[in-house]
Amino acid sequence: MKIECIYEARSVLSEGALWSSREQALYWIDQMRPEIHRLDVAQGIDTKFDLPLPEQLGAVLPRAAGGFVLAASDGVSFIDKDFRGRVPYVNPIADTPRASFNDAKCDRQGRLWAGTTDRLETEKVGALFRIDRDNDAARVVDGFICSNGPSFSPDGRVMYHSRTHDRAIYAHDIDPVTGTASDSRIFARIEPEAGVPDGSTVDAEGFLWSTHWGGSRITRYAPDGRVDRVIEMPVESPTSCAFGGPDMTTLFVTSASIRFVDGKWVYLDDAGFARTPLEGAIFAIETGIRGLPEPAFRG
Predict the structure, then answer these.
(1) Scanning 48, 67, 81, 257, which has its CA 20 to 30 A from the CA of 23?
(2) CB 165 within 8 A of CB 146
(3) Distance CA 273, CA 209 (A)
(4) Torsion angles phi and psi, residue 274, rounded to 5
């Protein structure tokens, strides 16, 4: 598969890849700066929105009522369609100051599933919440350091959830009516040389695509957990992926330039970017496999 760098973003930690079919554009965040961006892929023009934001971001998602949903260190909030204003919605982590919302997706019924991470990457304060349209935030699972990659099968009956530091992707059965999760089981384990599981997405055939932080790769898993293919990436830490493009067959991939070394975040400086200019960049991969649009939050 051809891998193309479509924007040398020099991001600290680009995340939250979100394709807008209506706009034919890719939304993404720089989690640590923090910033929200929109990349016009055809024109190669990237726009950073001028909006006051909390200290750490997790994900930006569409909202069915218009505008966007932001999961971040100050909880879940709504952003208007022009990115000029933001209003709080719910914050179930207000009493956990070291936690920040991280990766998030909506299921096929429009419920929001948002996970958290320990900002110091050491304590098991991470949890996965299901946030319904009635402003209710239910804690689904907890007891890990960092939550990543909630993604859903095409029929919405299986959720894939990555416990990053455990090097494991779990599968959960989902009741489409109630949103209840059950039968949690290991879907895939990641060997140390392959990094750790980060963001993910599911294609129209029901296969899971998972990025590997520190592993320089993306893995496509069959619904039974079998490794279907591995795509070697030209960066150390791909972080999230989303299908898009005119035919929904392009896999857009974000990446990070930051590293976590001896308990501290280490930022890449200008000399580092001169040596490895693609770290923190945005990529496009023509897969020949059709993806699925991400559902909007119906709250």
Answers:
(1) 257
(2) yes
(3) 27
(4) -65, -35
Q: Bridge partners of 156?
A: none
DSSP for residue 271: H
Q: 119 and 125 in contact (C-beta within 8 Å)?
A: no
Q: Which stretches within 19-107 are classed as H helix? A: none
CATH class in words for 3-286: mainly beta
Judged by DSSP in three states, 52 sits in coil
| pTM for the predicted model, two decimal places | 0.97
Q: Residues with catalytic annotation?
A: 198
Residue listed under structure tokens 């208007």: 80
DSSP three-state, residue 261? strand
Max Cα-Cα span within the chain: 53
- What DSSP string runs through 112-161? EEEEEEETTS-S--EEEEEE-TTS-EEEEEEEESBEEEEEE-TTS-EEEE
Q: How confident is the model at residue 115 (pLDDT cuts 50, 70, 90)?
A: very high
The 3-state DSSP class for residue 289 equals coil
156, with CB counted inside 10 A (0-12, 13-18, 19+), is middle
Percent of the chain with pLDDT over 70: 100
Give tens-digit pLDDT for 196-238: 999 999 999 999 999 999 999 999 999 999 999 999 999 999 9
Dihedral sign of CA atoms 188, 150, 200, 35 in order: negative
CA terminus-to-terminus distance, the chain: 38
Six-digit token pair at 271?
Answer: 């000399």
Q: Write down the residue that tokens 């993306």 correspond to.
A: 218
Q: What is the residue extent of each domain of the chain? A: 3-286
CA gap 5, 15 in Å, rounded: 15
Bridge pairing between strands 282-286 and 264-266: unpaired
